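Hi there,

I know you've been waiting on this one. I reran it after we fixed the sequence typo, so this is the corrected version. Both the input and the resulting structure follow.
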Amino acid sequence: MYNIFLTIFFLLVFHPLFAQQVTISGNAPDYAGNVIVFYTLDNYFCEGEINIAECTVGDNGDFSVNFPVSDVKLIFTRLGVFNVRLFVEPGFSYEVQLPPLINKAPEDMVNPFFKESMVTMYLLSVKNNKDEIIDTDKDLNNQILGFYQTFNLYYDSLAVDVAFRRPVARLDSIINDFMEILPQTDNRFFDDYAFYRSGLLYFIAQRGGVRYISEKYFARKPLQYDNQAYMELFNNTYDEYFRQTNSAISNAINRQGSFIRLKRLLLQDGVLPTDSLCELVILKNTHDEFYAEQFSRSALLNILDSVIVYSKIERHCEIAEQIRSKITRLLRGFEPPDFELYKHDNTLVNLQNYSGKYVYLMFCTTYSYICLSQYKHLEELYQRHHKWLDIVVISADDNFENMLDFRQKSGYLWDFLHFGNDPEVLKKYDVRMFPTGYLIDPEGKMVLSPAPAPVPLYVPEYYDEGGASELERTLWRELNNKGLWQEYIRRGLIDTR
């Protein structure tokens, strides 16, 4: 029994999945009443954001939040114009000071290209997992900030030499000197972080190539999925790796769509000596190549599906599912991202509320001239086709009241939803301009991404000789191809008069 107890104890304490609570607290009166949401990345290929915790700042400015982590993790929160980052360690407590509250301008709220200013959370006090107060200068976050003061000097100097094609002598010695002047710590994560950041010096100097960097930094070493420095060097090292190998790789992908065959071929050349490293390279390149034109998309999807089924590494199965979700979310025949948004009648709705009919989903604002010109033609579309086609506008207005006031004054009868309850819906649908439209079928599957505007942008009087807009011709082709046009006429859903 004693041996069994010891076995269970060590499995719990030292198992990598054993999580400990992290606490973040502080006082920020400027943020009173605001909800602070903390995120982390799902992986360093998709860079999807996972909500790991949130809290509401009290009337007196106090806030506190707890969440479990099993290893060092980089988290972040969006506070107005700032993106505030913090490395958290299992079992640690952080008393922090938030940056001054500077809200985004209304136009920045709906600008998909707006970038927040990256800052590191300011630490007032830190307790470790033994509840001991530690010097904030020795906290991992400040150690990393101090690291960059040294690293940037070396990186910038080397980058200038490379840019001017000056010979870079004694690169190994330079990197060794750099590593030796770093402070000595007992934090394994910091040591690994510094080691993999130093690999960027080899990379920008173009010294040794993929094989050399792979052997020095990745071969037969543990994979560090959540170490930003590791993953950024990894992404640079193995970029376009499928294209750099032989034609047999292309055949394994395009003709066979075979994960097993692809993995076997990649293991043979010696650059990727382990299953784990080989699979991670496959995941990275499958994600990247899906957005290029070198390889068959259906074949790449087959490979992802095979990783999910055949990989013995649980994290790789998770990453494959995350990649698959990202790359298929706006593809024809797949379910588009769901949302929960408040409708003009203040009810909370999602895509399932519109099942059973086609949906023309359009992202717009009520103050854009182009959107306003489209609304007039949406009204015509609504009057002719509302029996079988739901028109839904997701409004990116500053606030719900502006959207509601516009709908009441305009008299438009289709549904208006406000993005405020789920601002990430703009990213989910890759909205880069207003208006942007999508067509979804009665089964909830994507038909067109993007779909034509009611009339072509900037040409508001465009119709064909028969009086049909490009969108209406698209709708007719969709119904005709599925044999629904005559059926809808028979059921009285389409008026042919």
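Quick highlight: The longest helix spans residues 140-163.

Best,
R. S.
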